[in-house]
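Dear Dr. L.,

I hope this message finds you well. Following up on our conversation about the binding site, I have prepared a predicted three-dimensional model of the protein together with zinc ion. For your records, I am including the exact sequence and ligand specification that went into the calculation, followed by the structure tokens. Please feel free to forward this to your student if that is useful.
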Amino acid sequence: MESDWGSPGFIAEQFHRWYQSNSRTIPAPTEIRMREFAFLQFGGKTMFRHIGFPDESAFRRYLTENSPAHSYHSSCYYTHPESDMAGKGWSGADLVFDIDADHFDLPCQHEHDKWKCKNCGEEGTGKPPEICKCGKAAFEEETWLCERCLQAAKYETQKLLDILIQDLGFSPANDLVVNFSGNRGYHVHVRNQRIRNLDQSGRREIVDYILGTGIKSEYLGFNPRSKGGRPTLADEGWRGRAGRAVYDFIASTPPEEIKAMKLGRKITSLLVNERDKALAILEESHPSLLLKAVGVGDEERLMADIEKIMEMAVKEQAADIDTVVTTDIHRLIRLPNTLHGKTGWQVQTIKLDSLPDYDPLISAIAFRTGEAKVYVRHAPKVRIGDAEYGPYTQESVTVPLATAIFLLCKKGAKIDK
Ligand SMILES: [Zn+2]
Ligand SMILES: [Zn+2]
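The resulting structure of the complex is given below.
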């Protein structure tokens, strides 16, 4: 029976046990009385929301008693968090960022993610198309994860933090909180009076800045008529960032890919045959000299080529954030340190300086003892802790509890009695 997959009763019981011993270690969000909370139970389709707590002990008691599959709090502050939306009294919101490998297009997703059309049965790997060949858009999706998607999400998070700290001036110690999402991503919360009352369009501007939307190479030094001046790679803001982006792009793009961009003959030759010279110009002098090094010719074409390079380079430097989350001023976001019902892992707050070495596949494991026997219908290979498991196809296996719960939460297995 389809509904058996995942054994929700078993997982709910394990979550309950975990919350009984760990709820007391879960800190309430800041300004708890102004936050709305929301929860989903295993097997339940309705989200319980508009919940408020007077203090941390009421909050912890709720977690122990209900042991939810998914737990959220509002990124915003309300005077009456328990009222309906109209009566809540919005009074500011943290600035939140969601970085989720679900939104990336990664080669590994074609190895571990699958979709199937509910209407005609068409199947494929990676993300489903917007519309199936049959004209319908209802898919069954199977999304797993691996070290490569987790690394990619962390890399995007680090780029985001760099922009938030270097360009926007937020204090790593006082304003920023980074959480592993418990699944395929990271959340960054900015708490600072300067952003608390920003409306949607204010937040949209921050999003545009982070994405490098509308960046034009000619205003960033890449202009043959520029008078030059000091080197710009170390400049603040997008001026330096864009220069570094172009530098990295030239340094790391293979010649075949440069040729495939179908740029002008001279610039292609400079980037392919004299790459070191091009890099030295960017490093030691002004970007305008890069254009001069290409030589005289069709200036309009050259600017269009530089713009094309800049566009691709900026995409690499910009952080891949979910823009909808950041601009939504009523957003619910996962509660740090609770469990994620699609993995059985813990949402974790990570100290900024430990982020480079943070490994969710070791740190976020919640169930550290015991084992369970599960029947796996399908699961790709995954590392959990220090060991690798799978791939499995239609087989019974006895594995550590953390692995069993992960396979069950992903609905790839059921308890084998
Ligand atoms: Zn179809
Ligand atoms: Zn992956």
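In brief: Residues 179 and 345 are 13 Å apart (CA to CA).

With kind regards,
A. P.
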